[in-house]
Fold this protein.
Amino acid sequence: MRRTWRWILAVLIAIVLVTALVLWLLLRGSLAELEGEQALPGLAAPVSIERDALGVVTITAGSQADAMRALGHVHAQERYFEMDLMRRSAAGELSALFGPVAIDADKRMRVHRLRARTEAHLDTALGDNPQAVHAYVDGVNAGLADLSVRPWAYLLLRQSPSPWQASDSVLAGLAMYADLQDPGNQNELALRRIRDVVPPALHALLAHDGSSWDAPLQGEPRGDAVLPDATQLDLRTLAAAPTAPAADADAVGSNNFAVAGALTADGRAIIADDMHLALRAPSLWFRVRLRYPDPQAPGGQVDVSGFSLPGVPAVIVGSNGHVAWGFTNSYIDTADFRREPANAQVTVHEERIAVAGKPDVLFPVRETAWGPILHTHADGSGDALRWVAHLPGAVRMDFADMARAGDLDQALKTADHAGIPAQNLVIGDRSGRIAWRLVGARPDRGPGCVPQGFNTLQDNADCAPWPIRSDAAPALIDPPGQRLWTANSRVVDDATLAVVGNAGYDLGARGQQIRNLLATQDRFDEHDLLAIQLDDRAVFLQRWWVLLHETAEHSDDPSLKRLAAASEHWDVRASANSTSYRIVRGFRGEVLDAIESALLAPAKARLGDDYLPPRLAQLEGVVWPMLQQRPANLLPPGVDSWDALLAKAAHTLEADLGKQGPLQQRTWGERNVADICHPVSRALPAFTRRWLCMPADQLPGDRDMPRVQGPSFGASQRMVVSPGHEADGIVHMPGGQSGHPLSPYWGAGHEDWVHGRATPFLPGKAEHVLKLVPAR
């Protein structure tokens, strides 16, 4: 019997070992080829692909077409699954991979019919150099075919990848539209519905579009709200329904700033850029250097380094030795609803959603000349949406021409044809000049159309369906102060704002902090700008710390006393070991939640199921004057005094923190723990996080300061570079280059991003060289 059990145990162990070996071999089979020689169909001449210690790729080719073909090959081998997710998310095709769980997400995007629109206007999207895009597509499919085993994530999902098409590169660009803009235009709709049912003075508070933290490049700060008196608004007399405040959603955006040559020792312009997005492993971006001859480039040669987006044949932000450029999301108004009557002419498109393991789902999309109908009312009328992403030219591959721009003026001409989501472009050239320009697709609204509000057939009869444009955009070139900054807050003056609109500009505290830091020096180098990017000082919370302690001084409330004692030493910074930052931030959050709920409660009572929570990005500019003036007419119902409101906020916060242990040990890092994982990790057992997630580091930084950082949101890249001085440039990138957990480049460079250690902008010494040769 013992021998039998030993034999059974040995067999079981052998089966486990063989299974593990097979799985390991399967996983290794989808690793990118790093060395040797490989044939690539379509090449005109050999191409060299070098990788340094971090997996940063240098492609040296004999032409742009060969460089794009090689870039597609590399992107596919390192990131095909992630590329696939981008095209599917934009097209509403995730259910074909993930099954019924993704149907609702697919419907939210399928209503826009982005694949159908892309294929109908593909020639426009490919721009003036479609050959480069087609070469990239061929390279992608060759790179996928050259893997011994399909990418590992498909094995887990029991799926096979579909080939890449030119339209998929356009959809990858449209995925950025969906990420950076609101495909449902919900905030505008929410505020319109609220406007229709609350007193004008209440709507004016909710829609207030600035604060004392404003730091625009053009025009004056809007300032805090002027509070209405009791004759205009009295919250105590309005019917109200309990409502939770809108979720504290991450503001998708970025920082970029620049100093001109007059502020550097040798006349160099320096650009800093860090794009704040959802974080994952691998990174959204892929670092690359492209070198190839081009008769349209200065000296007949392109040499561009920076961050590419797998799926798109271009360097998105970077430097080419002559110009350097970076982006922040602009938050101009790029979409308008229009109320269509019940008898409006409607076309119905039957969209078919493929679902893994289940029958297809038919999804009818009703569309007017204005756009798809997203909401239908009881009377048969509908809310149709017009969004720039629907229209031809929203994505144009011509922005890749930035790689050959020779100076600031040429770069700005390239921006005229940029088919990208509307962005704040900050750019500098080798001569030391700098500029800001609104770049990307924006509505070309005619007379009778306004960028704010809700267009209706009755009061906007002259508002015809508008086209889009990207030329003749607002700009600030060679600023007198030799400095530029943007951080998703309002950039432009009132006159320009009336044209481009406001889709939810962020609080200006971050931009003001950057502006003020730039004003403290008259000489800069790359490390000075990196220090600004890494600034985690909570400047705008200073007054909240004072408020907490002043309130505690004049109160016998024990909760206030304990919170004040635990935060007695004001750390100023959102550092991982700071208790005071976590307490003050939490205190402010509780106060804002209470006031926001009170301001929205009358609308909730009137609207019922039609109520949508708006994102009130500028609420600080309303709440702070309330706390300073303490008007009885704006006191939330059920609260006896403003002191009582502050005490209640303290009670709630202390109870929440106290459940976790002593207050003095509740640090910011305890809450702000990295949660940066591969997309498929959410569907797998928890133990797989060891292999599919970056380390659970306690992270410094937060929103409303330059070092924006949450558990899975923050700087998706950092870059500081001077054109012509790229060897002195600095980068950071979380998550690493490769999408394969067994790759040496999985997570490579991530630790430098966590700790803010400078990583060279240019690739380092080649550790692996792959030679691609024309196929015979």
Q: What stands out?
A: The CA atoms of residues 354 and 360 lie 5 Å apart. DSSP finds 23 helices and 26 strands in the chain. The two ends are 63 Å apart (CA to CA). The mean pLDDT is 93.
